Amino acid sequence: SRGIANFSEATQTIDVPIAVGAEQWWWAVDGNLVFNGARSGAFDLALAAGDSTRVIFLGGSGTAHTGLVYVDSGVVRIGNVDAISAASFVFVKEGAVFDLANTPEDIGGLSGAGTVRIGTGSLGVGQNNTDSTFSGSLTGSGTFNKLGTGRLTLS
Questions:
Q1: Tens of pLDDT along 77-90?
Q2: Which of 26, 115, 142, 155 is deepest in the core (most CB within 10 A)?
Q3: How many other CB atoms sit within 10 Å of the CB of residue 77?
Q4: Number of H helices, E strands in the chain
Q5: C-alpha distance from residue 73 to each of 18, 42, 53, 103, 142 (Å)
Q6: Closest CA to 139 of 99, 92, 95
Q7: Distance CA 95, CA 12 (A)
Q8: Is 151 helix (H, G, I), strand (E, B) or coil?
């Protein structure tokens, strides 16, 4: 499998654009990963930050990346509006955290059993008009908006 991994205890920062040209895994094994460059491509991107002390930070624009974003473990935190494409489906695995960091974000769809931290931001779900089910938790005082024509089941 292709990807990027941080085996150092120090935070690794990548400031260049990244084309997701094939399915990829990005791992924060021993230290955090910070991506400030734009992401593009139509392939799936799996993000594994290990445990709850590790963070993968998506600071660059993700509007040109239309593949699935799979939050496998740890915390995946966004840093700006459009960090995730409105066309991208986000799957949050049980035990993992998708953290909006109080930022407004619209995504294509949402499923899984993990935690979505909305904080004081907002999350719009359903831009890709696909049916989905989310059985995890939504936390924070921000807003949650159902968008598009697909059915979203919260259980």
A1: 999 999 999 999 99
A2: 26
A3: 21
A4: 0, 21
A5: 21, 22, 10, 21, 23
A6: 99
A7: 24
A8: coil
Task: Quote the mean pLDDT of the chain.
Answer: 94
Q: Could you give the percent of the chain with pLDDT greater than 70?
A: 99
Q: Give the 3-state DSSP-derived string for 27-40, with helices as H, strands as E and coil as C.
A: EECCCCEEECCCEE
Contacts of 120 (CB under 8 A, 6+ apart): 102, 140, 141, 142
Q: How many residues does the chain have?
A: 155
d(CA 8, CA 121): 32
According to DSSP, residue 86 is labeled T
Residue 70: both structure tokens together: 């799979």
Determine contact, residues 74/95, Cβ cutoff 8 Å.
no
